[in-house]
């Protein structure tokens, strides 16, 4: 979902693990997404900082009540969890990403 509408957005991803930090490189390759919007508006740069959350619905509600709505959300390609990008740039200077991994079966 992008801005509350279904999206067929796609991106190429690369992850570089640096101990407790993971650097994620994202190249938007089609459809409307928060990644494409950022690139079109700002050029290359830091798009977001991500945090693992235990209860995404509760966290999304709390940040929404603080004036920071969801911009883009979905499921991981392998369907093992979810992500949500929060419009927090005005308040925090960067977009937040909330990550949630489903319980292993």
Report on the structure:
With 105 residues, the chain is of the alpha+beta class. It has a single domain (10-101), classed as 2,3-Dihydroxybiphenyl 1,2-Dioxygenase, domain 1. It is built from three helices and six strands, in the order ββαβαββαβ. The strands form two sheets. The protein has a four-stranded mixed sheet. A hairpin with a 2-residue loop joins β1 (10-18) and β2. The model has no long low-confidence stretch (mean pLDDT 92).
* Low-confidence parts: none
The portion of residues forming beta strands comes to: 35-45%
| Topology as a string of helices (H) and strands (E) | EEHEHEEHE
Outline type = globular
Number of distinct beta strands:
6
What name does CATH use for the topology? Answer: 2,3-Dihydroxybiphenyl 1,2-Dioxygenase, domain 1
Structural class: alpha+beta
Radius of gyration equals 14 Å
CATH superfamily name? 2,3-Dihydroxybiphenyl 1,2-Dioxygenase, domain 1
What is the number of helices? 3
Q: Could you tell me the mean pLDDT?
A: 92
Helix percent band: 10-25%
**Sheet with the most strands, sense and barrel status:** 4 strands, mixed
Question: What is the top-level CATH class?
Answer: Alpha Beta
What would you say the CATH architecture is?
A: Roll
Cα-to-Cα separation, first versus last residue = 26 Å
Task: Please indicate the count of domains.
Answer: 1
Strand order of the largest sheet: 3-6-5-4
